[in-house]
Specification:
- The chain has about 150 residues and is mainly alpha-helical.
- It has one domain (about 1-10, about 20-150): P-loop containing nucleotide triphosphate hydrolases (Rossmann fold, 3-Layer(aba) Sandwich), CATH 3.40.50.300.
- It contains 7 helices and 2 strands; from the N terminus they run H-H-H-E-H-H-H-E-H.
- It has helices at about 1-5, 25-30, 35-55, 70-80, 90-95, 100-115, 130-150, and strands at about 60-65, 120-125.
- Strands 1-2 form a two-stranded parallel ribbon.
- The longest helix is centred in the C-terminal third of the chain and has 22 residues, at about 130-150.
- The chain is globular and about 50 Å long.
- This is Polyphosphate kinase-2-related domain-containing protein.
- It holds the Pfam family PPK2.
Length: about 150
């Protein structure tokens, strides 16, 4: 977790991380880049890291933007067929799609084992992009307002 300490925003600022310290229990696990011992140990390390962050005043708001297997295919096809968005879709995306069930197991375990009172997960149904965006913004606002009321 040491490499992430350097990336934590200073007091009074906001930082947004995409995957961040969850890489080991998700991508590295599924792709075989981490041993089972390493990714299992990471759950405890993640929880301890987030406990330290919240103890030092950080507000942690975590989201899993869940889309269905069918919705993912629909979005992939739309990107593939749109000359302005096709660059966003790679062969790796298609390859990873073939591992959907493995990622699904890893995601469910990740959420179950790292959902804590001080750093809870919010699973956002995201087949509807507008709903997902509004839900995320409302959740962030509520988390920040709640923390400000405590101080």
């Amino acid at each position: 977790m040491g490499r992430f300490w350097r990336q934590i925003p200073r007091e009074g600022t906001i930082g947004i991380f995409d995957r961040s310290w969850y890489g080991r229990v998700l991508v590295e696990r599924v792709e075989g880049f981490a041993s089972e011992l390493e990714w299992r140990r990471s759950y405890k390390e993640i929880n301890e890291f987030e406990a330290q962050l919240t103890a030092s005043g950080c507000v942690i708001v975590k989201f899993w933007l869940h889309i269905s297997f069918e919705e993912q295919l629909k979005r992939f096809e739309e990107r593939k067929n749109n000359e302005f968005k096709s660059y966003k879709l790679t062969e790796e995306d298609w390859r990873n799609r073939e591992k959907w069930s493995l990622y699904n197991v890893a995601v469910n375990q990740m959420i179950a084992r790292t959902n804590t009172p001080y750093a809870p997960w919010t699973v956002v149904p995201s087949n509807d992009k507008y709903y997902a965006r509004v839900h995320v913004l409302e959740t962030v606002i509520n988390a920040v307002e709640t923390e400000f009321k405590k101080r």
